[in-house]
Every structure is written in C-alpha cells, then in structure tokens.
Specification:
With about 350 residues, the chain is of the alpha/beta class. Helices cover about 45% and strands about 20% of the residues. It is built from eleven helices and ten strands. The strands form two sheets. It has a five-stranded mixed sheet with strand order 3-2-1-4-5, with helices on both faces. A hairpin with a 4-residue loop joins β6 and β7. α5 runs antiparallel to α8. It is globular, with a radius of gyration of 20 Å. The two termini are about 25 Å apart. About 50% of the residues are buried. The protein binds 5'-O-[(R)-(carboxyoxy)(hydroxy)phosphoryl]adenosine and zinc ion. 5'-O-[(R)-(carboxyoxy)(hydroxy)phosphoryl]adenosine binds next to α5 and α6.
Length: about 350
C-alpha cells in the first residue's frame, strides 16, 4: 500500500501574493473561486442546484452529491479561466470539510485533495461556518475589531465575537430552529415556494407587519434565541383564522424574527464592546433584517458590515479566504483529512 506523506508538501511563504483555489460543496451550491492574499477575489463561480431540489421542497442529499460531481470540474475550470490563471499559479487548495451533507462534502474534499496532491501544494480543510465570518472581512478588509458577527443561515444562528482576524468565540446561538429553518418551515406551511426565506421577504413587502403579534422568545434571557415557538404560533394562528392573508402572516412573522435578532445582536455587541456589527449567512440577504441591523448599528454608534447578497450566501471565495488565513497561521491539513458533517464553529480542524 502506498502511503501519502504530508511532508512532500512544502508550505509556501504566505503573503499578499499567495493564491488559493477554494472549493465549496457542503449543501446545494457547487462553487469554486480563486482568491489572492486572502481578500483579493480573482474569480468566484457558483452553480446553484436550486431547480433540481425545488420540486421536492428541500435539499435531497443524493441529488446534491451527484450534481456536485457533475458540476465541479466545469465550475473549477471556469473559476481558473475567469481569474485568468492556470493550475501552476495555485499555491494551495482549500475545501469545506464541514458542517454539511456528508456525501456532498466528500465530493469537494476528494477533488481538493487530489488537486493539491497533483500540484504538490498544501491542502487546507475549512470550516464552512468560519468561512462565513471571512466573507464579511472579504467585503470590508478594514473592519475594526472587536466585531460582533451574526451568522444566520438555513442550519445555524450564531452570535460570534471576533477580537481579531484570527480569533473568534461563539457567545450565543439558537436553542432549537435556525432562523432560516424557521423561514423555510413557515413558508412551506403557507404554501410559498422553496426556498422560503426569499418568498417570505417578498410576500412581507405586500403585507401589514402589525396585523398579528407573534411571540418574541427569550428577549430577556442572555444571548441565546429560540424560533420554534414563533413557527408554532404561525401555524396555530393560520389554523384558527383561515381568513388571515398570507402576506400579513408573512410580514408579521418576519417582523417577529427580525426584532429578536436585532435585539440580541445589540445586546451581544454591547457586551463585547463591538466596534463593528457584521452579518452573514443566507438570512442576511433579508431586506428587513439588513435595514433594521443598519439602523440599530447607527443608533449605537458602531460600524456595520452588510456583505453583498452573493457573499452572504454560500460561495467558494469565502472558503479560499478562510483557507488563506489558516495557511497564514501555518495550518495545513493532512491528505487523510475526512469530512465532518457536524463540525462546530470553534472546534478546529481534524
Ligand atoms: O447560508 P445559506 O445560503 O445556506 C446554508 O444554510 O448554509 O442559507 C440558506 C437560508 C435558507 O433558509 C433561506 O430560506 C434563507 O437562507 N434566505 C433568506 C433570504 N434569502 C435566503 N431568509 C430570509 N430572507 C431572505 N431574503
Ligand atoms: Zn452557509
């Protein structure tokens, strides 16, 4: 049996000219990107599988793995092409090792390790949640620390304190549903199309947000949040009031979720003496959340980083960037690194 010795890989000096190829396949987006020096995005290609999953009302893991396998070679070639470089210019290859769907993750991890081995450059395993933090720094490289980062996605709702570009700590999180999960479940119940977040965002524009007062849970309890109660309240309300208009329900639900997130973000920012408040994850594309977080930050005299919608949702530029920061800390992953579907933020790499 041939063993692969990580010592064959020579770590290059990591600086502003270090080019990292990033690969992201944790869920339903196949993405590849080329980033130089941690923040200079030379290309970022995202192929969405949305159409393939929409008719099932959610992501189907087997479909996701197969679609990644089919799309990744082309997506990677396109990323190199758009960056106007060839493989010889790549100094390291980074890929998401978790959290995510195991089969989907393995496609990207295997491709990244093979590419790194063939090129004789380091492979860097990246925590997807950590990468979302770096998306904010990518959009705003002059971020002032400490920063309070609100990560709101389909699978996670985390309040993270970042004291510098390399140090972070989770200080609050959901005790049940993630914010995006609540949006998706409520939308599904209301008969709105998948994914639910954008559909509720749109319906809410036509609705009256003060029509129904939905519960705002745990407002006075620390920095954790809970969204399963508001979801149940929506279901109970609609069952008891069949005449309620979908737009009013959507607007009132969205208002309740946003109120909770803004309230907790302000409390967390105050607790850590944040100079900057940043958002990330798919729910950070929500128009009301963006508006309300921006005005809260302004009222509290702190800077706000609202990454572009492309940077909030899953992409590989944030993976390449997080990979660069890991390399800069001398963290290279071994080629026997596997995928970890339950990887936590702050748990480090295996
Ligand atoms: O970060 P993301 O692209 O994937 C992961 O979960 O990692 O987030 C997807 C989530 C879904 O729950 C989707 O409904 C939600 O983000 N989302 C939104 C909006 N756009 C996407 N939620 C509320 N308003 C939006 N405009
Ligand atoms: Zn994500």
């Amino acid at each position: 049996m041939t063993t692969i010795s990580p010592s064959v890989v020579v770590t290059p000096p990591v600086d502003a000219s270090t080019v990292v190829l990033g690969i992201e396949t944790s869920c339903d987006e196949t993405a590849a990107a080329v980033v130089m020096g941690g923040s200079d995005v030379l290309s970022s290609v995202v192929a969405s599988q949305l159409d393939e999953h929409a008719r099932f009302g959610g992501v189907v893991p087997e479909i996701a793995s197969r679609a990644h396998l089919e799309a990744l070679p082309q997506v990677t070639a396109q990323a190199l092409n758009r960056a106007n470089i060839d493989y010889s210019r790549i100094d390291a290859v980074a890929a998401t090792v978790g959290p995510g769907l195991i089969g989907a993750l393995l496609v990207g991890v295997a491709a990244a390790k093979t590419t790194a081995l063939a090129l004789g450059v380091p492979f860097v395993g990246v925590n997807h949640l950590e990468a979302h933090l770096y998306a904010a720094l990518l959009d705003e490289p002059n971020t002032e620390f400490p920063m309070l980062f609100v990560l709101v996605s389909g699978g996670h709702t985390l309040f993270v304190e970042m004291t510098d570009a390399h140090s972070y700590r989770v200080i609050g999180q959901t005790i049940d549903d993630a914010a995006g999960e609540a949006f998706d479940k409520v939308a599904r119940f209301l008969g709105l199309p998948y994914p639910g977040g954008p559909a509720i965002d749109k319906a809410a524009l036509r609705g009256d947000e003060s029509a129904i007062t939905f519960p705002r849970a745990m407002m006075n309890d620390g920095l954790d949040v809970s969204f399963s109660g508001v979801k149940t309240a929506v279901i109970n309300h609609v069952r008891a009031n069949p005449g309620a208009t979908t737009d009013d329900v959507a607007a009132s639900f969205q208002r309740a979720v946003v109120d909770v997130l803004v309230h907790k973000a302000r409390r967390a920012a105050k607790q850590v003496g944040a100079k900057t408040l940043a958002l990330g994850g798919g729910v950070a594309a929500n128009s009301l959340l963006r508006r309300e977080m921006a005005s809260a930050a302004q009222a509290d005299g702190i800077a706000i980083v609202l990454p572009s919608r492309e940077m909030c949702t899953d992409n590989a530029a944030m993976i390449a960037s997080a990979g660069w920061y890991r390399l800069a800390r001398g963290e290279v992953s071994s080629l026997d690194t596997g995928a970890n579907p339950n990887l936590k933020l702050g748990a480090g790499q295996r």
